[in-house]
Design the sequence.
């Protein structure tokens, strides 16, 4: 049943390895993900393979997540957690090579919905006052 539902979803071109075997654990999910994405023990973002080994201890979000996702496709997480364009520019120096086509059919085209939304949010955030709230200048004289 799970596989049939998945086929109709169109999310990926291949059913994730170990996803339908009991018990499904974080470790079995990661093992299957590592096997499916062919990241060769490195990290995949979009159509590139990256070696973040030297960056692990410098990652502003801490080391845990980077270490745990080694060997997997982190595209969606990378996009969701990095609103500015700085991280995308920074990772270029860690790129090892181009990757094969992703098994996931979710797209992140520059002119697509997600990237357009992200750009609009980025622009809107520039207009928001980031200073601490000021106490009211108005006081009641009782």
Sequence:
């Amino acid at each position: 049943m799970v596989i049939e539902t998945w086929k109709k979803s169109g999310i990926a071109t291949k059913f994730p390895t170990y996803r339908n075997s009991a018990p499904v654990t974080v470790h079995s999910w990661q093992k299957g993900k590592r096997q499916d994405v062919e990241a060769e023990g490195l990290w995949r973002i979009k159509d590139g393979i990256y070696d973040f080994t030297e960056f692990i201890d410098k990652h502003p979000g801490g080391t845990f997540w980077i270490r745990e996702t080694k060997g997997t496709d982190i595209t969606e997480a990378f996009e969701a957690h990095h609103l500015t364009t700085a991280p995308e520019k920074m990772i270029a120096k860690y790129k090892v090579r181009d990757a094969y086509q992703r098994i996931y059919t979710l797209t992140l085209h520059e002119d697509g919905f997600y990237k357009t939304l992200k750009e609009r949010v980025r622009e809107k955030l520039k207009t928001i006052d980031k200073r601490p709230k000021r106490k009211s200048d108005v006081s009641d004289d009782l």
User: Anything to note?
Assistant: The chain has six helices and three strands.
